[in-house]
Design a protein that fits this description.
Layout lengths: L7 E6 L3 H13 L4 E7 L3 H11 L4 E3 L2 H8 L3 E4 L6 H10 L3 E4 L7 H14 L3 E3 L7 H12 L5 E11 L13 H4 L3 H4 L2 H11 L2 E9 L10 E8 L4 E7 L1 E13 L2 E7 L8 E5 L5 H5 L12 H14 L7 H20 L3 E2 L8 H4 L15
Parallel strand pairs: 1-2, 1-4, 2-3, 4-5, 5-6, 7-10
Antiparallel strand pairs: 7-11, 8-9, 8-14, 9-10, 11-12, 12-13
Helix pairs in contact: 1-11, 4-5, 6-9
Length: 371
């Protein structure tokens, strides 16, 4: 298919709800920069329905390999179940395409190593979808914290308290280590603590607990962690699917101000609140207010950042070491929770069972067939 010069040729892999409800609108928002040329799904009925929704000119394929051989896209957007992410990402990278993949990018640090090797060999890049980083409110807060304008970060709280019923876990791949990589730590709260790490920088130590309190899943349905950052700041992180009053929240207490974000699945500028310390000049605090532009956190905002990087030929945000840091945090949380010991950044290396799988082959948590 012919695409006008300057526009990137995009293929989507998986045509379920996340692609049709989030990625398709994001592609349409950047219609001057991209052209959707292909879609892949093993379900022919679902694929046909998506192609009808997406519009004329979108070719359909039953496998990633067939699509890559025929289309040679510039960018592949992956919205399949997590167990397929590593394989499909590596295949796209080997074909020379950049990748924007739904979270989690992969299910373990060992799988991440495969993706990193494919990046190195191909020169292409793979970004993971963490859209909450890309709203104007998040960008503004990060700039204020990083500049020191709010004073040193001291105390933080990160809360993903959502609710998922039994029917949610009747989908076969949910709640299983081999197909989802974990429970709310990997599949739900990862968005919020990724944003926390984005705001506060490198973490140093994790002490955690996890439980399987309600759902009969292989993985946890709640986890909680204490985190020490390299800066010295201390934080709590809670990931739950047991909470009737659903909320996503981050609070950072700095020396001169408290920054709070409260939302559920996405935020705008008004969701960010700055409370100055009593001795701060009101005129100074007024300058902390949200910027004039109000860019919601969204797939469209992140896609724009990836396209900007593609245009410049540089590594996109949310890829490489940046993506690995968040995945390593998840592995550390699980290791600490399951072993009862603190885990330090850089500790989980090849040979560590938590490098190969998030359950770490722990007898109380690993699938019985692997123990």
């Amino acid at each position: 298919m012919s695409v006008p010069p300057g526009r990137r040729r995009v293929a989507v892999v998986g045509t379920g709800s996340i692609v049709s409800s989030s990625h398709l609108p994001a592609l349409r928002a950047h219609a001057d920069r991209v052209e959707l040329v292909a879609a892949v799904d093993v379900d022919e009925t679902r694929l046909d329905a998506f192609r009808a929704e997406a519009g004329d000119g979108v070719a359909g394929y039953g496998s990633v390999e067939a699509m890559l051989d025929a289309v040679h896209p510039d960018l592949v957007v992956i919205g399949t179940p997590p167990s397929l992410h590593r394989e499909q990402t590596v295949a796209a990278l080997k074909a020379g395409a950049w990748v924007l993949c739904e979270k989690p990018l992969c299910l373990s640090l060992a799988e991440y190593d495969d993706i990193a090797a494919a990046e190195e060999a191909s020169g292409a890049y793979a970004s993971v979808v963490f859209q909450h980083r890309y709203g104007s409110g998040a960008r503004h807060a990060r700039e204020l914290i990083a500049s020191g304008e709010l004073g040193a970060p001291l105390v933080a709280h990160c809360q993903t308290t959502w609710h998922r019923d039994t029917a949610y876990y009747e989908v076969p791949w949910r709640g299983r280590w081999a197909s989802e990589g974990g429970g709310p730590t990997m599949g739900h709260g990862i968005h919020q603590y990724d944003l926390l790490l984005h705001l506060l920088g490198p973490w140093a130590e994790v002490r955690a607990m996890a439980g399987r309190l309600v759902h009969t899943t292989e993985s946890e349905d709640v986890s909680s962690a204490l985190v020490r950052f390299e800066s010295g700041a201390l934080a709590t992180v809670v990931n739950s699917v047991l909470s009737p009053d659903e909320m996503s929240r981050i609070r950072v207490d700095c020396a001169h101000a408290t920054v709070e974000l409260t939302h559920l699945y996405g935020h705008r500028n008004d969701d960010w609140v700055y409370t100055p310390a009593p001795d701060v000049d009101p005129a100074r605090a007024a300058a902390w207010r949200a910027p004039a532009d109000d860019v919601p956190s969204s797939h469209a905002a992140q896609l724009g950042a990836v396209l900007d990087a593609h245009d410049r030929g540089v590594r996109p945000p949310g890829s490489g070491p940046d993506a690995r840091t968040t995945l390593e945090f998840a592995a550390a949380l699980y290791k600490s929770a399951f072993t009862g010991s603190p885990v330090h950044a850089g500790e989980i290396a090849p040979g560590d069972p938590f490098h190969r799988a998030m359950h770490g082959d722990h007898p109380d948590w690993a699938p019985k067939e692997t123990v």
